[in-house]
Amino acid sequence: MLTAFQTCIPVFIRGVNTVPVDTHNARQQGALPRQRTARYIPVMTAPGDRSKIRLAIPSKGDILESTKQLLSEIGMDVQIHNPRQYVAALRGSDVEVWLQRPADIVRKVRDGDVDLGIVGYDLVAEHGGSEGNVVTVHERLGYGECRLAVGVPMSWTNCYDMKSLRQRASARELRIATKYVNETRRFLLDHGIENYQVIKMDGALEASTQMGTADCIIDLVSSGTTLRENLLKEINGGTLLSSSMRLIVNRGRISGESNFGDRLRDITKEMLERIEAHLLGKDNYNIIANIRGSSMVDVSRRLATQENLRGLDGPTVSPVVPPADSEDGMYAIGIVLPKEQLYSAIQQLRSVGGSGVTVLPVSFVFPQHCKRWIDLMGVIGRGSTTLPEVKVASP
């Protein structure tokens, strides 16, 4: 049984003011404050107010685990010393890692409270603002793929595209449940739908149509199973955007003329290059094989006749030192190629005399230049968007 003291004290859980059930009389008597909707208030700080670079990542769920896995695979593990705290460290760097709600990641990068963030594009589009403070460093980190789409009841048999949805809205106001208010309004405006009401909800949107609180929803969809299990369907032309996880940075922070700005550019470039090289490496195999030939030129020419044996920048050919009782003329070759070309490459290797084929995974492939970094420097006004010229010394 609750005591009189307990019934008069609101409980605060992560910024949400929750009140015990039997509070009507207490509120009338002034014992309880009125409930208010929690809102995000950014804390504006200047680079001089703190010395450590801040990276924000999602605080829980599969998306947190996938983010930690990516950072671990590139050698920048997230080190969480206390699971009850929301701040961690990035191995090998002087970077603070802040575990945050995904929507707050975008807001805090936008307002400069954190410098870097890993978050879905859907939230960047919704909360990034029109000032250009949020800049994309890498637009596709390889996980979190989904789409923001309209879901209507399956019972609406005559509603199958945006035109038929507009016709339905012209006859009766549409109640649309979503947490993407800005994107929803932009999308409906583009499709000429004006007779609607947006109902902002943060979770379990699929149930709102069956509860009668909304007519349709706009929410994230991956496989579509959740929609179907709640008797909802997508419609043609009803996709607002495609989303996946991306790396973002605050424009003012990374373009700043200060020691902090220099350090942020250094860590951002390192993280970007590690990510880009790792994602490229994951799509490739390293093939090592032996092949007999009269010379390296002979072996190279035979490899060049096969479409899938040219590698990223051509095959590596080197002589093999044979055992004392073996013939000369054995060469080792190394080729890095896309995974989908593996079996055809094996067949082609065999056709030109290859043997002892070994296939290894590739962790990283670093190109000569990081084009995304060059593009980023151009976006923030700190460099050319063209690749630097490579100077080769004359023989």
From TrEMBL:
Histidine biosynthesis HisG C-terminal domain segment(s): 288-362
PROSITE patterns named among the record's database cross-references: ATP_P_PHORIBOSYLTR
Keyword Transmembrane: no
Pathway: Amino-acid biosynthesis; L-histidine biosynthesis; L-histidine from 5-phospho-alpha-D-ribose 1-diphosphate: step 1/9
Keywords: Amino-acid biosynthesis, Glycosyltransferase, Histidine biosynthesis, Transferase
GO terms under cellular component: cytoplasm
UniProt entry tagged with the keyword Amino-acid biosynthesis: yes
Entry's EC annotation: 2.4.2.17
Catalytic reaction equation(s): 1-(5-phospho-beta-D-ribosyl)-ATP + diphosphate = 5-phospho-alpha-D-ribose 1-diphosphate + ATP
Name of the protein in its database record: ATP phosphoribosyltransferase
Lineage per the UniProt record: Eukaryota, Rhodophyta, Florideophyceae, Rhodymeniophycidae, Gracilariales
